[in-house]
Design a protein that fits this description.
Layout (H helix, E strand, L loop, with lengths): L1 H13 L5 E4 L5 E8 L5 E8 L7 E12 L6 H14 L5 E4 L4 E10 L4 H25 L7
Antiparallel strand pairs: 1-2, 2-3, 3-4, 4-6, 5-6
Length: 147
């Protein structure tokens, strides 16, 4: 995993994609990124890479706060919209509704020794997440402010 971590961070530097890094429980790796959506808002992306001594590892990419329900009683409508978007626009990513009303996008993947597929998945998912926001606003109203 240490070689992958070095190669991944070298790719992030090469692509000029700033991130913050933190080792979390069980030695797993957490990277956080921000992608600008508008002048006022940014998309927060969290990447968790499993710590392993195998030649592959599992990774989870979470695109946070794509939308935040103003009224959690609207979750029925939100789930309908999420199901429609998952069928038509998310591809290998999945859109979910959290218990606090947050709508987030997630991708799970298995990575080998080449960091490029992980990087490409992060970047492509951010474009998908940004593209989903207008329809979420149109169908569910403006997003609530984040705490």
């Amino acid at each position: 995993m240490s070689q992958f971590k070095q190669d991944f961070e070298a790719l992030l530097t090469e692509k000029k994609l700033p991130s913050s890094y933190k080792e979390i429980e069980n030695g797993h790796h957490l990277y956080r990124f921000q992608f600008r959506v508008t002048k006022e808002t940014a998309l927060i992306v969290e990447v968790i890479i499993q710590n392993t001594d195998k030649s592959y590892s599992d990774a989870q990419i979470i695109y946070r706060h794509i939308h935040m329900l103003r009224d959690y009683n609207a979750r029925g409508k939100a789930l309908e919209v999420i199901n429609d978007l998952n069928e038509m626009k998310t591809g290998y990513y999945g859109l979910f509704l959290a218990g606090d009303g947050e709508v987030f996008l997630r991708s799970l993947l298995r990575i080998g020794t080449d960091p490029r597929p992980l990087y490409d998945t992060i970047v492509l998912g951010s474009a998908i997440a940004k593209g989903l926001q207008p329809q979420l606003v149109a169908e569910l109203g403006e997003s609530a402010k984040r705490n």
